[in-house]
Amino acid sequence: MPKLHTRRSRRGAWMLAALAAVAAALLALRMGGTRKSGYEPLLAAAAGLSTVQVSAGPILEQISCIGSIVPVRMAILRFGASGVVRSVNVKEGTPVAEGAVACSLDASRLEYEKLKADNEWRRACLESPPGIIDERLASLRVAEAELAGAAAAAPFTGIAGAIHVSKGEYVSPGQPAITLMDTSSFEVDIEVDEIDIAHVKVGMSADITLDAIPHVEFPGSVHSVGAATRLRGNVVSIPVRVSLEAKHPLLKPGMTAHVRITSGEISGVPRIPNRSWIDVDGEPSVVAVRDGVPRVVRIATGLSDDANTHVITGLSPGDTIIEDAVALQNVLLRTGAKSRSLTFGIERAP
User: Taking the model in full, what pTM does it have?
Assistant: First the structure.
């Protein structure tokens, strides 16, 4: 009997040992499967990358466009008569006072015509019936207007831009002579895509940066929205003018300007840096660090501005995530790990 008991004990111990071995093998298999699913590549790729906590704050809805700087006012001075240019009194880039004559014609012929018309009108007043008097008066007014048109005067104080005529040149009525610009303030001409124009209203604030003046951001606001569309290629857009509400000595007409119009804002929402989320199998995702382990978490996103993205579901303020998920994804690709390694342990937004 004792021998039988011993055999049963040994058999029980052997069975327990076998069960333990099977359990260990299953655990090892499970761990091995976990490794194959991409955990180790993901953990290695995340090593050394900075993390950031999800914060709560505002998100700005912005429309970005590229345009050019234009003066607040611009005029082309023209002659009202034909003749030979007698003088050009300004140079390109020089200031011109309001009322100053920028250029003029040789007016001797026009003065003679005006004097002749004046004499004919005076004689008509003494010797002719009313109909003839009116006719001679009309001729006098034309002669006076032509004489006045021999001088191109500035309608406002500004800077002389392009000079279109030169001394001794013969010009016709209406021919451009001088481009005058009021550079006391500037605006930006942009074109907004027809898809976005419904979100643009007069008075909306804007941020303006220029290639020629780096590291400076100018405040602005929408001054006007055009009534007609423009077709460039296959793109339909609407002209919009934005006031540049600041001065700078380096501002020049024609400079390239980058404009961001703020068309909406939401406040106090969970947000993450734009590079903190990526597409995984076509869905927005982040790499969250939970208990020291990186895990891919599906999220639902809302508005984005130039810095942050609103997270609707999947994360809460205070959660820790990899700050640059794009860099992490690039590391995985460089090390030969497939992008599907990011599917390990995916958690979906509730």
Answer: 0.60
